[in-house]
Amino acid sequence: MIEYRDIHKAFDVPVLTGVSLTVPPGETLAIVGPSGTGKSVLLKTTIGLIVPDRGDVLVDGQSVVEADRDTLLAIRRKTAYVFQNAALFDSATVYENVEMGLQEDVVKSLDRREVLRRVVTALEEVNLDPHQVLHKLPAELSGGMRKRVGLARAIVGQPQILLYDEPVTGLDPVNAAAVDRLILDIACRTHVTSIVVTHDVEGSLALCDRIALLAGGKLRFVGTPEEFRRSNDPLVRAFSDRDAAAAAAAQDEMCTSEERARHVASEGRLVPL
């Protein structure tokens, strides 16, 4: 179980201002929201990549903020992080990139055939043909294939927790849908706890147990996909309905124009509205 307790974080300006959230074991939670509202920041606090200014994160009851080096290492061992751009090593083959998902001591304890078997299995689980990609470099792969290799690297060590940071960013709709299906399939097969930070609201609604909307540094909504679709909250509706989104954008533009006009007028200059 993952617990975020009153998380505050600022980088010159506040980003997270009191976020509290619990993710039960085996749940897939999607986190959506406007750009720059701290979604990825919250995700990175889970394993101590970012330390909150206030509050704590507990993973299976263990504090991430107060953890010593060995405890933090143990938390990270049970967690895999899927980066937005796949974060593959350009000079390493697909085999070498996926192998890096295995703990060093695990690799040392296994013979090379068993390591190869685990890498091959992970590639097959993300619908890649090992015989075609095993010895290729990332530059020889399409964007969708690189995303899948990054996912294979994450699951090869059989983690208990998977953290996805914008897993479908930069993909066309077909490949994005394929990655979404893989995330859902992995969650159903392994019962891993998953947190997916994404801008792909429709895709996330199809794969998550619950969805959280983060806006203005706070949680605006937490609930099931059905509750999200039925919500009357204007911001939630803007994320689930194109017409509502267009209306919200128009309203925001109107407010911005009025604010700009008031600011200019306060300086003694007149501008047409």
Would you kindly provide a written description of the structure presented here, covering whatever features stand out?
With 273 residues, this protein is α/β, with parallel strands linked by helices. The protein has three domains: 1-78 and 160-231, 3-Layer(aba) Sandwich (Rossmann fold), CATH 3.40.50; 89-158, no CATH class; 241-273. 45% of the residues lie in helices and 22% in strands. It has twelve helices and ten strands.
> N- to C-terminal separation?
53 Å
Main β-sheet description: 6 strands, mixed
Backbone shape: globular
Strand order of the largest sheet: 6-7-8-3-9-10
| Low-confidence runs of at least 5 consecutive residues | 252-257, 261-273
Strand tally:
10
Radius of gyration of CA atoms, rounded to a whole number: 21 Å
Q: The CATH topology of the largest domain, please?
A: Rossmann fold
**Share of helix among residues?**
40-55%
- Kindly state the mean pLDDT as a whole number? 86
Name given to the CATH homologous superfamily of the largest domain: P-loop containing nucleotide triphosphate hydrolases
Question: How many helices?
Answer: 12
CATH class of the largest domain: Alpha Beta
Which structural class should the secondary elements be placed in? alpha/beta
Strand content: 15-25%
What number of structural domains do the residues give?
A: 3
